[in-house]
């Protein structure tokens, strides 16, 4: 098999100063709540959302990878479609948007990933991308009979993983590889993909995670320590300089955000309060924090409460809450601070994308941050 068709455009390569993505529709979204508007994953909803995002000219449609629920077996946070199968389906119903499979490098072998990603690349005409995560949730590792590695070892494995993946994608000659984590004999990847390399994303927040992203990835995420754009600018500048100076690479620096857009700021605040505080799924988030942060008990109450609120709101993302004008203004400030892209979640994705198209995108276009989109 070879790719005889011309490559399709890949939005992650476009010239928009501020790029936008949608995150987490392969599962039940990113909010931990019992609010009735919470997104319920279905394939039909994914097709509608992907086509809308594609038509609006958004850059990336990004899956989340999760093998075990947070609130105990059967909890909605575990209902996620496997990310390569999902990406193949999304690729088939879209034209321009980049389709990103999130995968655990500690659980998914690079030989399998190279073939699966090449398949999505062929289906999409050159729009496959990978969000590389190392994993941190012990229950997921147990499921595979794998021991959760020390933090530095996870990223050492990730470095080897990327080396092997790159050789499989670019090389036409078979090779052997002897590393600390992988041993390959006669490594080769067929069929040949469309792109020379897929876009790699990584959302590591630690210095080691950032070094990995700076060295290997095209899109990195900052997790802001302070929401003020002046502080965000410092974090973005540091990240970009590290990639440039240490690895000679230019990277896009993105953030993830949860969006609550209403006609008035008060309505947006009330709606956020209702789904996050009044109807928030506290037990699931407590479980998540307990598993994720071994020393959580030692943290001050305020810090835990803040973290819990952010997880319930949308998987710890940055708040974009208010009117279209407020949200567009905040995004513009982040762009001025050097942020290249925002990966968005909503409680109700279909309603959220419709509001974004009507109120926020025209303002971003008027500000020169994005080319005009088809909002019909
Ligand atoms: C936007 C975003 C998306 C993420 N998606 C996933 C995911 O789907 N699965 C997962 O196990 N971890 C995910 N993570 C967690 C990161 O991969 C990473 O483990 C975490 O940010 C901690 O960083 P560190 O590995 O440098 O300590 C995500 C993080 C962010 C900010």
Mean pLDDT: 95
CATH superfamily label: Luciferase-like domain
List low-confidence stretches: none
How many structurally independent domains?
Answer: 1
Biggest β-sheet: count, sense, barrel? 8 strands, parallel, barrel
Distance between the termini: 38 Å
Question: How many beta-strand segments?
Answer: 11
The CATH topology comes to TIM Barrel
- Cofactors and ligands: flavin mononucleotide
CATH architecture: Alpha-Beta Barrel
**The top level CATH class name:** Alpha Beta
Query: What's the helix-strand series?
Result: EHEHEHEHHEEEHEHEHHHEHEH
Placed side by side, the strands forming the largest sheet appear as 1-2-3-4-7-8-9-11
Number of helices: 12
Q: Indicate the radius of gyration in whole angstroms.
A: 20 Å
Structural class: alpha/beta
Shape: globular
Helix content: 40-55%
Task: Report strand %.
Answer: 15-25%
